[in-house]
Amino acid sequence: MEFIRQIERLQLLNKLVREKRTGTPDELAKRLDVSRAKLYLILEELRDRNVFIKFNKRINSFEYEACKGINLEFTFRILRQDEEKRINGGKILNLFGASIILDGSKLS
Questions:
Q1: In this structure, are residues 42 and 49 in contact, taking their beta carbons and an 8 Å threshold?
Q2: Residues 6 or more apart whose Cβ sits within 8 Å of residue 13
Q3: d(Cα 77, Cα 38) in Å, to the nearest integer?
């Protein structure tokens, strides 16, 4: 499931940046299993959401500016039959607007 991999990628990015041990942009891209260009697209998407991450040459790592990190949670569970009746199906609530962070294509 690519979606889960993308969530895991963001969790790893957050962990490494919080701990200030990302390494160079090329090293970080390799650890996240993305191209350097894709890494910068992810960072740009986060910047659009007011999460600022910059590279610090002195410590050879990316670091957060003006925050300690982000909280990213994801859960996956099977619904019981009685639960599916309570789900508001057929309508997509897009609380975050267009996003390219997950797979590079805009979500609408």
A1: no
A2: 28, 32, 42
A3: 30
Is 93's pLDDT higher than 90? no
Q: What is the pLDDT of residues 14-71, one digit of tens each?
A: 999 999 999 999 999 999 999 999 999 999 999 998 999 999 999 999 999 988 888 8
* Helices 2-18, 25-32: inter-axial angle, 10-degree rounding: 140
Residue carrying structure tokens 């569970």: 77
CA distance 46 to 38: 12
| Token digits of residue 26 | 């090329």
Contact (CB, 8 A) for 4 and 74? yes
Angstrom distance (rounded) from CA 59 to CA 24: 10
